Amino acid sequence: MTPLYDVLKEYAQKKPARFHMPGHKGAFLPVPELMGAAMLDVTELPPTGNLYEAGEPFDTAQRLWAQRFGFEACQFLTGGSTMGIHTALALLCKPGESVLIDRNCHRAAFNALALLDLEPVYLQRPWLQKFGMIGPIDPENVEKKLKENPNIKTVCITSPTYSGVLSDISTIGRIVHEHGGKLFVDGAHGAHLPFLGEDAFAGADAVVVSAHKTLPALGQTALLFVNGIDPDMIRLRASLYGTSSPSYPLMASLDGARQWLEDGGEDGYRKTTLRVAALRKKYPCLEEGLRLDPTRLTLCVKDGPTFTKMMEQRNIYPEMEDGGHVVLICTPQDLEENFDRLEEVLEELRPDMGSCPPLPPPPMPKRVCSVRKALFAESERLPLRQCEGRIAACQVAPYPPGVPVVAPGEVISKKELAYFGQIGYNTELEVRVVTSL
Ligand SMILES: Cc1ncc(COP(=O)(O)O)c(C=O)c1O
Questions:
Q1: How many angstroms does the Cα of residue 106 sit away from the middle of ligand 1?
Q2: What pLDDT, in 10s, does the model give residues 141-200?
Q3: Which domain holds residue 43?
Q4: Which region holds residue 197: left if phi is over 0, alpha if psi is between -120 and 50, else beta?
Q5: Which amino acids bring their CB within 6 angstroms of ligand 1?
Q6: Environment class of residue 315 by beta-carbon count within 10 Å: exposed (0-12), middle (13-18) or buried (19+)?
Q7: Whether pTM exceeds 0.70
Q8: Which residue among 82, 107, 157 is best mutated to probe the pocket of ligand 1, counting the most ligand atoms within 8 A of its Cβ?
Q9: Domain count of the chain?
Q10: Residue 82 Cα, ligand 1 centroid: separation in angstroms?
Q11: Fewer CB near the last or first residue (10 Å), C or N of the chain?
């Protein structure tokens, strides 16, 4: 069933006189490759519904997704998981409240702290020396922090991470609920996991996934799943952050992706996991002793930037590198022949694989004011290397993964500058620092 896609097709097939937005009228776009999408690119009309109001076709299209994820409600998003993180925190927190938040969260979560003036209490992840990277969230640490901060009612964590590391959501959810709180999971990288039978999100009160990252869906598409909140309130909060003209082709691609998965696409992900498992056995990879997304291939390499460059020179483009690892997103849309090419290249580059010299975990900077105060303060732009002792007015976050090493309101000290040097971050790049609070 593709209720949204169906009404869009029916409307286009009627060849209506489209005296409404968008201005291309489904008839002309100067970029011819986009014409197929233009046919479906309409506005809110009686048959096409309104994303931010109850009614068809959205009620059914979103309910079908919610059922697949085992949640009560689903909200389509056309602003990526970024929009979902903002919406979820606006649903679960009141402005000014404190939130227990994974320090490894994406920059979008830090922007939400500023927009909602939330007070962060950070959850640090354990450093895994063996892999030279951070591990999953420790549930005992969640419990400890909640005992120390009994006022906290919202916990926000990322799972899986960019590298595919999964945290134990059901245990963490149970702990959060025992303390009377709610758990929000940024599952941006895990939209495919429930289709693999992975118990990745059960126990959370809200989860956002980027359909566009791992499913055959258009860029910017994401899905927010929520339990225990009136769908009308979910729509209201989502509309705070979304355009009032959400793209119908984007949303139709969400409808189509779900149906495709149910029609056998799921099996494709199973095949992908087999291919990834074989590669993990053959080459140094993140694997042993960690619960991982079975489709994510995180290679351990001696020098991430150089290794990535060598792959790109051979026409293979990974998703990201972080110094000692190169991350590849694998889906059923990666052709067998491309996996074969990847394997040939990995064979050739085998001498450059293995553990990198251990990189230190990022330091925890000193915090002097709220994220909101610093982000909206008077500020100036300076090369990062000149910012010792200054308060950041922006996030200093190598992208990807987009996890801030220094958040707004924190001091950039010698320690942080040394860390940026060690990870090879260009400290000539300008950042914004506070001039007056
Ligand atoms: C963990 C995580 N959360 C959220 C986002 C933002 O997702 P989107 O690009 O769908 O807005 C990203 C993007 O890379 C991410 O890595």
A1: 6
A2: 999 999 999 999 999 999 999 999 999 999 999 999 999 999 999 999 999 999 999 999
A3: 3-260
A4: left
A5: 80-82, 106, 108, 158, 162, 186, 188-189, 210, 222, 400-402
A6: exposed
A7: yes
A8: 82
A9: 3
A10: 6
A11: N
